[in-house]
Amino acid sequence: MSTTTIHFVRHGKVYNPDHLLYERLPDFHLSDRGRRMAEATGAYIAADPAMNRSVAIFSSPLDRTRETAGAILEALNPVREARGEQPLELATDERIIEARNEFRGKRIGHGEGALWRNGNWKLITNLYKPSWGETYRQIAARVGDFADEKVREFPGEHIIVVSHESPIFSYRHMLETGHPEHWMFLRHTALASITSITYSNETGRMVSIAYVDPAAEVE
Questions:
Q1: DSSP 185
Q2: Cα separation of 202 and 6, whole Å?
Q3: Which DSSP category does 123 fall into?
Q4: Amino acid 121: pLDDT
Q5: N- to C-terminal Cα distance for the chain?
């Protein structure tokens, strides 16, 4: 059976000394530790005989995902070049961007906090939907649209996609359970982790899901 595998990578740790919810705001970059996380994941991908055969790499257009993808390419492209293959170049796609969130730019749980003040409690009436921005169903739908397109575009291949926790897990949860709604505190998507989803090229349906956390020990 011919299959396509998409390796969904979450970005590394972000430099955020003011503890803001940065959402889609510009100029939030990887911290020093986040860079090391991305490098560890890049080294893991470059050493894996299936992942290092990936034929394309995509990321969200945000700084932290593009920087994570850049670290992956720094590790992966020398392996490709040693095999006589052309280096990969990063492409971005809005469908795999961070979830829209009405708390953007505010502090959550630090200092004055934003969660319970100034009427913000009205935004958290439903933790399962959620009620403070883009719903999990909307998030999973746009990621699913992206994945469906890439499975058709790259039959029999592996590709790498650098995205964010909520898009990756909402989509995964939809595939595993039939619905994307979930408790955000129970997500299984560590920083710089890889969620690999394999699809049948005949049916387009998910065949298997694997998860690995190459940066777990990075300090």
A1: G
A2: 16
A3: G
A4: 47
A5: 41
List pLDDT tens digits, range 113-139: 555 555 554 555 555 566 567 899 999
Q: Give the residue among 164, 190, 165 at the shortest CA–CA distance from 94.
A: 164
The mean pLDDT of the chain is: 90
Average of per-residue pLDDT across 24-41? 96
Helix ranges, the chain (H)? 32-47, 63-82, 136-153, 165-177
C-alpha closest to that of 109 among 16, 10, 216: 16
Contact criterion met (CB below 8 Å) for 198 and 51: no
Domains of the chain by range and CATH? 3-212 (3.40.50.1240)
Q: Which helix (H) or strand (E) holds 158?
A: strand 158-163
Per DSSP, the residues of 77-138 read HHHHHHTTPPPP-EEE-GGGSPPPBTTTTSBSSSTT-SSSSTTGGGGGS-TTTTSSBS-HHH
Q: Are strands 194-200 and 206-212 parallel, antiparallel or unpaired?
A: antiparallel
As a whole number, mean pLDDT of residues 11-33 equals 92
Q: At what angle do helices 165-177 and 136-153 cross, to 10 degrees?
A: 80
Query: In sequence order, what are the residues at sequence separation of 6 or more whose Cβ sits closer than 8 angstroms to the Cβ of residue 95?
Result: 142, 143, 145, 146
Q: How confident is the model at residue 152 (pLDDT cuts 50, 70, 90)?
A: very high
Edge-to-edge strands, sheet with 3-10: 90-92, 57-59, 158-163, 3-10, 194-200, 206-212
